[in-house]
Specification:
Length: 264
């Protein structure tokens, strides 16, 4: 059944309900009233479910192999939405067989960065590519643009391949801290992505590895313009990872390719 996405005011109401239940639960735990705290746990869960069920599903990109639109969950109303929690696992609709992974960037456009009570990882302010992924044969990245309600400009950066590499060789989705995956054998796993990023898009455009949806379009088609007309090249903005928690934002350098030790 088709679910109507929430409006901005419905979203605000769901998030208000979620935060209130969380706060009440924390207070009850402090007072050692565990029975009532458990009741509030279910209120927290209900609000969370309502939020994820009614998240907008937007056209974020367009497959360069079959022209199919890439529709994914997204919260364009602000980073205080639970979609932006790095641990979130939003349920996605099936997509075309070429889609590999969605990354992204968010330009704050002079507006105040603001997130929920978690460390949102929106990416840098301008589009970039991950050379390790683009080096796969038949891999193409598509850059697009989506306006966010607080005045930010978001850049979905979607990877598509003629033949998709195995899931464990891809990377974390946009906004997520970990790359979690399920192999065709059913085996699951995770890692902390540290692949270096490349903001110099021109050489990749020249090699035909970058395509784009025109800014201001509905992201359902690719530009057929020559590489030198790509509007996402050399954009002004901070070229570092951002972390936003509540009304505090800071930069966190760039991934350096060093492996992160795993505790499993
Ligand atoms: Zn496709």
């Amino acid at each position: 059944m088709q679910v109507t996405p929430f409006s901005e005011s419905e979203r605000a109401e769901i998030l208000r309900r979620y935060r209130k239940a969380l706060e009440t639960r924390a207070r009850l735990v402090e007072q050692e009233d565990y029975d009532l705290a458990r009741a509030y746990s279910s209120k927290v869960r209900q609000a969370k479910e309502a939020y994820f069920k009614r998240l907008p599903r937007l056209t974020m990109s367009c497959c360069p192999f079959d022209g199919k639109p890439l529709v994914r969950t997204f919260d364009p109303y602000g980073m205080d939405g639970l979609w932006w929690n790095p641990d979130a696992k939003p349920e996605e609709l099936p997509c075309c067989p070429h889609f590999c992974v969605l990354r992204g960037a968010v330009h704050f456009a002079g507006e105040k960065p603001y997130a929920g009570k978690f460390q949102a990882q929106p990416g840098p302010e301008v589009p970039y590519v991950i050379p390790r992924l683009l080096d796969y044969p038949g891999m193409i990245v598509v850059i697009a643009q989506i306006k966010m309600a607080p005045g930010y400009l978001a850049y979905p950066i979607a990877y598509f391949a003629e033949r998709r590499p195995p899931p464990d060789e891809l990377t974390a989705d946009w906004g997520r801290g970990l790359h979690t995956y399920r192999m065709s054998s059913g085996e699951t796993g995770w890692n902390v992505p540290t692949d270096p990023w490349d903001f110099d898009l021109k050489p990749w455009l020249a090699k035909g590895k970058i395509r784009w949806c025109p800014p201001g379009s509905d992201n359902t088609f690719l530009s057929t313009g020559p590489p030198e007309t790509c509007p996402y090249v050399d954009l002004p903005g901070i070229r570092e990872r951002f972390i936003v928690e509540g009304d505090v934002a800071w930069t966190h350098g760039l991934p350096d390719g060093a492996s992160v030790s795993r505790m499993d």
